[in-house]
Amino acid sequence: MRILIKNGRIIDPANQLDKIGDICIADGRIVSILKGGDDFTAEEVIVADGKIVCPGLVDLSARLREPGQEFKATIASESMAAVSSGITSICCPPDTQPAIDTAAVAELIQQRAEATSKLRIFPLGALTHGLKGEHLAEMHALKRAGCVGVSNACMDIANTDVLRHAMEYAHSCDLTVHIQAEDHFLSRNGVAHEGVISTRLGLPPIPETAETIAVARALLLVEQIGGRTHFCRVSSARSIALISDAKKAGLPVTADVGICHLHLTDMDVDGYNTNCHLRPPLRDQRDREALCQGILSGSIDAICSDHQPHDEDAKASPFSETEAGASTIELLLPLTLDLVSKKKLSLTEALSSLTNKPAAILGIDAGTLSPGRAADIVIIDMEKHFSVDQSCLISAGKNTPFNGWELNGVVTNVFFSGQAVYQNND
């Protein structure tokens, strides 16, 4: 299929490009960019006047609930939700049921993604068998099966010696270790940020030090071992400072933040809003501002959805008894663009945090419009506005804390390897 996307505002942060022009697509790949459209014989022409044309988005963390929790969501349902927001590459954590600690599970996930023909799924393998923090997983086999990194997801590795050997093994396999830093001895059974709100509501608290101590421990091991390490879903100002110092010292570390933490604080938990029960917890205003500044300074490399769809019962109990997580995959782009409209980020910085930077963290061939690359392309109408209605979410999970929010930026077209996988003409 030969496609011409004509006269769009092409933004490709990987190539420092922001210009009006054309994109020519043939055989699933980008043939040329900016020029050549008039001499290109196309079977389909899409006029993108006044619209943004950018690479397909790369989401560093989305739970798809398959295998093991198909009653919450499936790869098919969440893939459709993802492409509606321009996401064409997804990294999924290893805390499926069973965990991604064998090649068979990793291959199953990728096969089911291929069956949807809408996007690519890149699994993270488990650091330890069953995510129990005791015995190392077979990382060489996981890498051969397509895993782009290893992680213990939200499960703690309490034994520092086990963590050290896991990081050494990953380094020998040339795999990035993804760490969601939390000291479970400090967080205990906490459900909300330790502060005024948790005290007033009587909710078990999670102190900031539960994260920062775990970050500091991991950074000391990185200093000793030298392997690539990515800090997932950083939530506190102090953690950002530690990671920033490590980067300045030349350590091979990167970090991301979940989209909820750039918009919400522990104040949003007030009223026991269970859709704001997240892990890590929403922290205070100072932390939220520090996270936005961290993106600007480069201390934080990427923004992810941290998508966690839940069934209705999972959020229907008293706050402390509900399951953590929010359904955010199809709101990742408009919520990030909202930061642009509020002048917290430039448009290029925002798109970079969703395209080339997460792709670089995963080491995948995505997130750019360079000629010769797969034609994963998104067209966005910035003039269109919409109101978030949780009942109308495409995701099987309706548990969003953003119900009723007014947002701008609507995806009108998505191409995956040159194939049209989403179109919105409303």
What does this structure look like?
The protein is α/β, with parallel strands linked by helices. It folds into two domains: 82 residues, Urease, subunit C, domain 1, CATH 2.30.40; 306 residues, Metal-dependent hydrolases (TIM Barrel). 27% of the residues lie in helices and 23% in strands. Strands 1, 2, 3, 4, 5, 16, 17 and 18 form an eight-stranded mixed beta sheet that branches. Strands 6-7-8-9-10-13-14-15 form an eight-stranded parallel beta sheet, with helices on both faces. The longest helix has 17 residues. The chain is globular, with a radius of gyration of 21 Å. The two termini are 25 Å apart. The model has no long low-confidence stretch (mean pLDDT 96).
Radius of gyration of CA atoms, rounded to a whole number: 21 Å
CATH class of the largest domain: Alpha Beta
Q: Estimate the mean pLDDT confidence.
A: 96
Beta-strand fraction estimate? 15-25%
The overall strand count is 18
Sum up the structure in keywords:
426 residues; alpha/beta; Urease, subunit C, domain 1; TIM Barrel; 2 domains; eight-stranded mixed sheet; globular
Short description:
This protein is α/β, with parallel strands linked by helices and 426 residues long.
How would the blueprint of this fold be written?
Elements: E1 3-12, E2 17-26, E3 29-33, E4 44-47, E5 52-55, E6 57-59, H1 75-83, E7 87-92, H2 103-116, E8 120-126, H3 139-144, E9 149-151, H4 160-172, E10 176-179, H5 184-187, E11 192-193, H6 196-201, E12 205-206, H7 209-225, E13 229-231, H8 237-248, E14 253-258, H9 285-297, E15 302-304, H10 332-341, H11 347-352, H12 356-362, E16 377-387, E17 406-416, E18 419-423
Parallel strand pairs: 1-4, 1-5, 6-7, 7-8, 8-9, 9-10, 10-13, 11-12, 13-14, 14-15
Antiparallel strand pairs: 1-2, 2-3, 5-16, 16-17, 17-18
Helix pairs in contact: 4-7, 7-8, 8-9
